[in-house]
Amino acid sequence: MKRLSVLFTAVFAIAALVSFSKVSAIGDFAVGSTLENFKLPDTNGKEQSFNDLKGKNGAIVIFLSVQCPVVKGYDERIVKLAEDYKAKGVNVIGINSNSTESAERVKTHAAEKYKFPV
């Protein structure tokens, strides 16, 4: 049993080191840096580009999930943030990062909760 515990600890430590080295390999993305354009489908399946969705003064990208209790807890704040910053020329763009949620469920949730593109 002790060997199994030591083996598990070693595997966990190696996995942690590998994952941290990948994060640092990406590099820093400082505030004020320019994000390269990318395209993703919206809730209607239409491809949208970051450059078309960002505001005159930039964008706030928020990663969302229909099921996440943290996101649910912040829904009202996210909506308020989007309203406040839209007036400042900064658009909020939502990206659902949960691959297990159906497109239809994401679309329904976005229509009920948000006034910005998801």
Describe this structure in words.
The chain has helices at about 1-25, 50-55, 70-85, 105-115; strands at about 40, 45-50, 60-65, 90-95. With about 120 residues, the protein is α+β, with helices and mostly antiparallel strands. The chain has a single domain (about 30-115), classed as Glutaredoxin, CATH 3.40.30.10. The strands form two sheets. It has a two-stranded antiparallel ribbon with strand order 1-2. A two-stranded parallel ribbon has the order 3-4. The longest helix has 25 residues, at about 1-25. The protein starts with a helix and ends in a 5-residue tail after the last helix. Mean pLDDT is about 80; it is low at about 5-25.
Task: Give a short overview.
By secondary structure, the chain is α+β, with helices and mostly antiparallel strands. 49% of the residues lie in helices and 17% in strands.
Question: Topology of this structure?
Answer:
Layout: H1 2-26, E1 39-41, E2 47-49, H2 50-53, E3 58-64, H3 69-86, E4 90-96, H4 103-113
Parallel strand pairs: 3-4
Antiparallel strand pairs: 1-2
- The CATH topology comes to Glutaredoxin
Distance between the termini: 49 Å
CATH architectural grouping? 3-Layer(aba) Sandwich
Mean pLDDT: 80
Structural class: alpha+beta
Q: How many discrete domains?
A: 1
Bulk shape: globular
- Adjacency order of strands in the biggest sheet: 1-2
Order of helices and strands: HEEHEHEH
Biggest β-sheet: count, sense, barrel? 2 strands, antiparallel
User: How many H/I helices?
Assistant: 4
Strand proportion: 15-25%
Keywords, please?
Glutaredoxin, two-stranded antiparallel ribbon, alpha+beta, single chain, 118 residues, 4 strands
